[in-house]
Amino acid sequence: MLKITAPLSNAPLSMTYRVSLISLALDLLHNNLWLVLIDLLLIAFSLLGIYLVRKNLLRPNIDMVQQLKSHQTLGQEVIANLPLGLLIYNFSDNTLVASNKIGDHLLLHLSLQKIANLAEGDQGVIQATVNNEVYKIHMFKSQLSPQT
């Protein structure tokens, strides 16, 4: 039993309400059943949405992998057919990101760290001689990766 007591303002009496807890719970459930059902339905929709997002969007499907490979192949083909030498080097982990034949030829004969240090002092442009051939070297820093 739930007992609620409230004094009356104009009289020395007080009012007491007695309600059975079982009847109170059944009445609350009966009056708010639609709210409980909507809450359960929204929870089920959110769990279903999380499942579908994780299943479909976070895992790359075969089409996405093939598209990525075709973009990489196209990028490598463009780099290989450039009439100028191209060399993209990541100085933070000392790895070659991309290059073409002319860039590979220069990579064998030059110290990239020295070239980078010299180019930083001369607005990113220097000239180097390899096997009696003069090369003009432009150095650009990546906006996405400053060490590249």
SSE topology sketch:
Layout (H helix, E strand, L loop, with lengths): L1 E6 L6 E6 L1 H11 L1 H24 L5 H19 L6 E4 L4 E5 L1 H9 L2 H10 L3 E6 L2 E6 L10
What does this structure look like?
There is one protein chain. The chain is α+β, with helices and mostly antiparallel strands and 148 residues long. It has five helices and six strands, in the order E-E-H-H-H-E-E-H-H-E-E. Strands 1-2 form a two-stranded antiparallel sheet. Strands 3-4 form a two-stranded antiparallel sheet.
Q: What is this entry, summarized?
A:
By secondary structure, the protein is of the alpha+beta class. It is built from five helices and six strands; from the N terminus they run E-E-H-H-H-E-E-H-H-E-E.
Structural class category: alpha+beta
What is the share of helical residues?
40-55%
Give start-end ranges of low-pLDDT stretches: none
User: Would you list the SSEs in sequence order as H and E?
Assistant: EEHHHEEHHEE
- If helices are DSSP runs of H or I spanning 4 or more residues, what is the number of helices? 5
**Number of DSSP-assigned strands:** 6
Measured distance between first and last alpha carbons: 75 Å
CA radius of gyration is 37 Å
- Main sheet characteristics: 2 strands, antiparallel
| Strand order in the largest sheet | 1-2
Strand content: 15-25%
Overall mean pLDDT: 82
Oligomer: single chain
Morphology: elongated
List keywords for this structure.
single chain, alpha+beta, about 150 residues, about 20% strand, two-stranded antiparallel sheet, 6 strands
